[in-house]
Amino acid sequence: MGFDWPASPLFFGVISLVLIGVLWVHARNLLKSAPAKIATRLVLLRIFSLALLLALVARPFLEQEDLDQSKFRLLTLVDFSGSMEVRDDRGGEKRNEQIRPYLESLSSDSWIAKQRQRYGKVEMFAFSEERERLLGDDWNIPQVGSQTALGDALSRSLAQAEDQPDAPLGSLVVFSDGRNNTGRNLLEVGNEFRARGIPINVIGVGKDRPQGDLKVTFSDRKPRAVAKEDLLLKAKVTNEFSKEVSTRVSLFMGDEKLRESSVNLKPGVTQEILFDPIIPQTAGARRYRVVIESPDGDVDPANDLDTLLVEVKPPLAFSILYLSNQPRPLYPFIKRSLSKEEQFDFQALIRLGENVFHAVGEGIENTYPTDQDFWMSYDAVLADTDALDELNATVAASLKSFVQKKGGGLLLFGPLDEAREILGGLVPVKAAERVVMKQDVSLRTLEEPLFGPEDDVDEMKPFLPGRLPGYLVTQKNPASRGVVVVRASGESILAVQAYGAGKVAYWGSPHDWRRSLRDEDGNREFERFWQALVQWLGTGGEERMKVAEESNVLVKGAEATLQVEALGSDFEPAVDALVVAEISGPGGFSEKVQLYPRGAVAGQYAGNFRPEESGAYEVSYQLSFPDGEKLEQSGFVRVGESGLESKDTTFAERDLQMLAKITGGEYLHISDFDHAWEPKFAENLPTLKKRKNLADAWPIFIALFLAAGIEWVMRRQVGLR
After folding, report:
1. Domain extent for 40
2. Which of 75, 180, 379, 480 qualifies as a cystine partner to 476, CB 3.0-4.6 A?
3. Same domain membership, residue 640 and residue 520
4. How much is the average pLDDT of 268-273?
5. CB 3 within 8 A of CB 676
6. How many domains does the chain have?
7. Do residues 243 and 267 touch, judged by C-beta distance below 8 A?
8. What is the rounded distance in angstroms from the CA atom of residue 66 to the CA atom of residue 232?
């Protein structure tokens, strides 16, 4: 304490003694003229008032030293590595989200705002593999890093401080979970700070919890799969926790849950789960997925799901129905060609006359069907178009569902008028001209998409018989394709197209059976042609939207590519489709992405999105053609923490505590941290002396006024002036 008395201390002392003497004389006189009790109180009040007056005159002051904020720097390091994306409690905040309220500059009550009010500029840096400055008025999260180099970030901060001797580093505050999986040793760098007397204050973010991993995979990546036979799927569940874990394992196809099983796993154990058999009804691609419920502390949610694409082969026996409203010469030849092969279960329903039917096959009634689900027990239907008009409207129209949804095959032959009216766009041909040629017309069989090299199409040699009626396709659907054409003109005789999940064909040469009458080669050609055609129809639709599934786990925060390959109804690459992907994932993630054609490859579409959290992302693809046809497919993208971050996300609190202790800083857990907390600073930092004049304090004046007032009232009460 000091005094700002304008004269010498001796003069102040003399004045004080004089005042005390005057006060003593006054007190003696007061004791003679007033009661002792009142006189004593008045004397004490005057002594108190005199003391306040002397204090005002002497002008006492206090001197204190504060850090010179212009001569040093306060630096803050914030951990933005992948491990800071961890939620220590299911449904709780991420580690980096817990820090955010304290570092938002726009909030005047935040910790960082208070530090800047007191110390001026406070620098903030984010670090993961590298250290980068956080700019702007608010705290913006940069891209999450795949590794943590806390030691490197500290070392770089120290090197920067040594390059700026005019503004030494006064203190450093670190917000981190303590993971340091690359770069310099943490405590080694701490000793360098200690040698320079710079404290590192640490705010620990995280929670001690049991860590581990629970993962699931399909055991057999290529299971035997045949339509209408048992499909056995197996999954392996591995417990890499240090404790016993109970979970449920679910098997899905699309959104439909097929199977579910509960399992208890001891630490380090792998258990195989055999699901009850599944019976796929048709051939084609099926996408299955297996999902487990992961416990708290699961470090890699991306492997809580696995997907499997299964190619279901055609059944050993195709169920084939021949339907006609009258006996035709074609029937016995088709029946003979298909019935001689065990793979074809040939059935027929032919009207012979009024309420008279010829039925071949177990369970077929001698009448036209009345149940709209009648078709669903077959793999392919060979239908005389004249018979469609004799079916009730519901049964006839249900052929669309048979093809579109079940994936059945439909071959039509005969005039088109009634067929187009009943089935609409299901028929691949818009118009066909009835012709009677004077002589046989040679036809050429194309290999794709119906036939393959094994069918030896050059030896099939179909023809349009002369002097018997046939049909030349004059107008096809834009999405249909000619597979058997007139050799000379290229006009179509057999046209095919995809329709939903199934296949449809129109055959314009119903008298081609005459080949069988020529010779043994002709009979063999006829049989090879029809067996290949019916087998193709019965195998279900080709997967027209193929999703390119990523087998690797993608990196969180990095751009992920979605890619599909689309085929039109003509089985050619689709170049005019609209492809949209709807993505849903962890944390309520939802995004719609349009996929655009890739210029290099016809029929391929690709688009990108950026997953911000690890886990499984479901992708629903929707493909729309200009003619209104729509296809849907689903897929999954697995996203995990990248690099070393995914292997260990535990809270390294002990390392952080040691770092603070070595350097002379303070350690606080984030749960104990508040906006008023002050970091520890280095010793011998530049300071500024600040003087506080006690005489300028308003309480002294108030006290002096009150003392004088009280004395005046008391004197009046006893009759004194």
Report:
1. 2-66+690-717
2. 480
3. no
4. 90
5. no
6. 4
7. yes
8. 77
